[in-house]
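Tokens as discussed.
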């Protein structure tokens, strides 16, 4: 496999070489490392595309030990540094710095971010006519795409089933709500609109589809590939809802050299909450960095530059108050996260049935 067709370029090469040198400096100088791109993830097993074809992978012991958070683990679309193993799964030693990452809050109210994919260039947001058409949801998907650095494009599907007036009406509503977003209409059944659609699929770039179950994300992929690569299933007669046919995310190589990440229809889409909030308090953070004490709470410590700025009128009291509110919120969230982690590791321990002494040490 030629790495360039799956998105490899000089920039990745640079990061790869840096990481390789670092790994060699910390121990085994002899080890051969190669780059690979994550195609799909099953629990802690990975399918990885490399110059030698597709290989199985697992994370290195060091990585599994150090990383508590899901966000630190490889996800679909990640470039990783691998130690190849011809006798079993290859070992992943690190993730090359991501260009961007799609993440959402885990379903069920937990606070951990769930990674959807990394290094996506373009995101097709699919909706179909009828009940599935929903501008508020579209808005959330568009935000998710922008936040990850990918370009969102709206794709209205199943054009063969809707009257042209209905499609026109949907077009107009999307254009009015999101004038900066491109919209196309396709039918994966008849191929209508596919010429237009294919123009947006760029060789070497990574495209991802998002949308409710049953809108035709996998059918579209199959049509592009000209074969059944992903399973599809008819929607429910009564309300046109899909049956959650696709159950995992997977990256497919298109004939033109572009990548297509097929995803399962999402039941719940909560954006990860604190995204970007740090940036909104650059002013406070800038003053805070000049405080005498590293752990200054900016209340009554001597040499506090935040208080100083407040006195000089360079910072408003309201700004500081909302910043402190945010910090408190973060602290609460952090302790919730820690509790969650503890609970998780306990569950893991139970599953593995370790000895009592290990339980005490970890618990
Ligand atoms: N008439 C028509 N049916 C379509 C079209 N695209 C998909 N379908 C049908 O819609 C149903 C659902 O399609 P899928 O491709 O499985 O939907 P999906 O978005 O992948 O759904 P999940 O994997 O559950 O998230 C299947 O029965 C498809 O044949 C289309 O353009 N026209
Ligand atoms: Mg599917
Ligand atoms: Zn301070």
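Sequence:
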């Amino acid at each position: 496999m030629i790495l360039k067709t799956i998105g490899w370029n000089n920039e990745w090469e640079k990061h790869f070489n840096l990481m390789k040198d670092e790994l060699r400096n910390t121990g085994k100088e002899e080890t051969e490392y190669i780059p690979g791109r994550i195609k799909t993830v099953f629990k802690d097993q990975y399918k990885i595309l490399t110059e030698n074809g597709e290989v199985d992978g697992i994370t290195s012991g060091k990585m599994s030990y150090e990383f508590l958070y899901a966000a630190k683990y490889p996800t679909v679309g990640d470039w990783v540094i691998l130690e190849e193993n011809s006798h079993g799964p290859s070992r992943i030693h690190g993730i090359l710095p991501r260009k961007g990452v799609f993440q959402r809050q885990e379903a069920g109210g937990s606070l951990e971010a769930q990674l959807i994919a990394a290094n996506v260039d373009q995101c097709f947001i699919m909706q179909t006519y009828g009940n599935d058409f929903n501008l508020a949801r579209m808005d959330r998907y568009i935000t998710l795409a922008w936040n990850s650095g990918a370009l969102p494009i709206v794709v209205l599907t199943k054009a063969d089933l809707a009257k042209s007036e209905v499609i026109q009406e949907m077009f107009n509503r999307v254009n009015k709500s999101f004038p900066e977003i491109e919209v196309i209409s396709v039918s994966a059944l008849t191929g209508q609109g596919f010429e237009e659609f294919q123009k947006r699929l760029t060789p070497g770039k990574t495209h991802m589809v998002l949308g409710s179950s049953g809108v035709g994300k996998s059918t579209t992929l199959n049509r592009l590939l000209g074969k059944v690569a992903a399973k599809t299933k008819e929607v429910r007669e009564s309300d046109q809802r899909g049956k959650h046919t696709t159950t995992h995310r997977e990256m497919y190589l298109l004939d033109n050299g572009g990548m297509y990440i097929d995803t399962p229809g999402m039941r719940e889409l909560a954006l990860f909450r604190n995204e970007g909030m740090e940036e909104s308090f650059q002013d406070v953070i800038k003053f805070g960095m000049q405080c005498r004490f590293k752990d200054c709470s900016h209340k009554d410590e001597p040499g506090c530059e935040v208080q100083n700025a407040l006195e000089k009128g360079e910072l408003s009291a309201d700004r500081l108050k909302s910043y402190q509110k945010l910090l408190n919120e973060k602290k609460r969230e952090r302790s919730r996260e820690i509790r969650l982690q503890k609970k998780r590791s306990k569950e893991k321990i139970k599953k593995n049935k370790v000895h009592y002494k290990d339980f005490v040490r970890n618990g």
